Amino acid sequence: MSRSETVWIVDDDRSIRWVLEKALQQEGMTTQSFDSADGVMSRLARQQPDVIISDIRMPGASGLDLLARIREQHPRLPVIIMTAHSDLDSAVASYQGGAFEYLPKPFDVDEAVSLVKRANQHAQEQQGLEVAPTLTRTPEIIGEAPAMQEVFRAIGRLSHSNITVLINGESGTGKELVAHALHRHSPRATSPFIALNMAAIPKDLMESELFGHEKGAFTGAANLRRGRFEQADGGTLFLDEIGDMPADTQTRLLRVLADGEFYRVGGHVPVKVDVRIIAATHQNLETLVHAGKFREDLFHRLNVIRIHIPRLSDRREDIPTLAKHFLSRAAQELAVEPKLLKSETEEYLKNLPWPGNVRQLENTCRWITVMASGREVHIGDLPPELLSLPQDSAPVTNWEQALRQWADQALARGQSNLLDSAVPSFERIMIETALKHTAGRRRDAAVLLGWGRNTLTRKIKELGMKVDGGDDDEGDEG
């Protein structure tokens, strides 16, 4: 960007304004800062910058209010919306309001600078967008993790579109919730959302489920039945586990996507429908295509826009927030007081593998609500199967916290005399680690541990450790 280009920064947080000012000025941009949207609105009547980067929630008028005013008066002026409230509503409202981009805090300064450059570069291509109202909140989709922010961005960008979407993700990650959100934040929001799980329908009933059947089409077809396509007319049809669809049904689906019409089973009159397709799978469709188990042409029809839902183990920072949400919801359903996780319990949950993803965490919270005796949930209050699971190999940054978790679990299992086993284990681990770092040199390892060499040798013998002789015959206690 050249020095003549101006960026306005709008945020009630002085530190955010300062950081952005310095970063943008280093790139040769001229900046002007405002602590509220009101000041920007009055200034816009006399002057217009090249780019505006604004917080979403501030005293007085919000960033969305400012965005709406700019869309009306300066539709080609790109606006980047920042927010510390990294939720789906913020992302969708920003994109629906016509924001150039959505930037969740805390952000990388280089990323912010890059966005500003890109916003200015594409300013001439921006079209004025009508401001759409914020739609029904979807509180079940929770996520501060960067991977979930990408999902929110995708939903926001697609909020003005009827385009076909393919959702990928392991079982239990929340694919249907994302499909619901895509529908609710789309032009079809007031029309039906119909879901069908391919894996749950017997093969011989699948075509009847999808396309319906005429009266007398087969034994037991006593009446005309409208299939899921007709039920979803004008709205969205969500086809879950699309990878399990039989080959002959894949062929019929491809024709519907191409022609927008189909025949009911046993029918001779074409039925025209206007349906948006959202498909989902936990399988790798490319692999199925290469194996001849999924039609390549259908794959390309479905794979227009793809959204990947991360595993729970890839968004561990969201686990405490998700758990709090699920515990609150379970308490409401059962009309009881919500349980509260101890900090060490949260840490323990964050380090579990969670093969069942968010669904497994939700079921765990239901179990806790019913089975935990006190209001505060200790590690020992968790389901037994979680206590026997190995913790994931994420780097341990707080050994005291890990020790506390171990002691809590051991006491919950009824163990006693913990120090008799803990202290020797502690010393053994420290000695092994020190020797590893010194390539077996005991004198150097003793220095690392704060011992004399003879003390280290004695401890090795007391603990019955089998280690190389190293420099065992060198020096004295010292």
Strand order of the largest sheet: 2-1-3-4-5
Low-confidence stretches: 125-139, 472-478
Rounded radius of gyration (Å): 30 Å
Structural class: alpha/beta
Calculate the mean pLDDT score and round it. 84
N→C terminal distance: 66 Å
CATH architecture of the largest domain: 3-Layer(aba) Sandwich
Overall CATH class of the largest domain: Alpha Beta
CATH topology of the largest domain: Rossmann fold
Largest sheet: 5 strands, parallel
Total strand count, please?
A: 14
Percent of sequence in beta strands: 5-15%
Q: What's the total helix number?
A: 20
Fourth CATH level, the homologous superfamily of the largest domain:
P-loop containing nucleotide triphosphate hydrolases
Total individual domains: 4
Describe this structure in words.
- This protein has helices spanning 14-26, 37-44, 63-73, 88-96, 109-121, 146-157, 175-184, 206-211, 228-231, 247-259, 285-290, 296-302, 319-334, 343-350, 357-371, 384-387, 399-412, 418-437, 442-449, 453-462, and strands spanning 6-10, 30-34, 51-55, 79-83, 101-104, 165-168, 193-197, 236-240, 261-262, 271-272, 276-281, 305-308, 340-341, 376-377.
- The protein folds into four domains: 6-127, Rossmann fold (3-Layer(aba) Sandwich); 151-308, P-loop containing nucleotide triphosphate hydrolases (Rossmann fold); 318-388, Helicase, Ruva Protein, domain 3 (Orthogonal Bundle), CATH 1.10.8.60; 406-463, Orthogonal Bundle (Arc Repressor Mutant, subunit A).
- With 478 residues, it is of the alpha/beta class.
- α1 (14-26) crosses α5 (109-121).
- A hairpin with an 8-residue loop joins β9 (261-262) and β10 (271-272).
- The model is unreliable at 125-139 and 472-478 (pLDDT under 50).
- 43% of the residues lie in helices and 12% in strands.
- The protein has 20 helices and 14 strands.
- It has a five-stranded parallel sheet, sandwiched between helices. A five-stranded parallel sheet has the order 7-8-11-6-12.
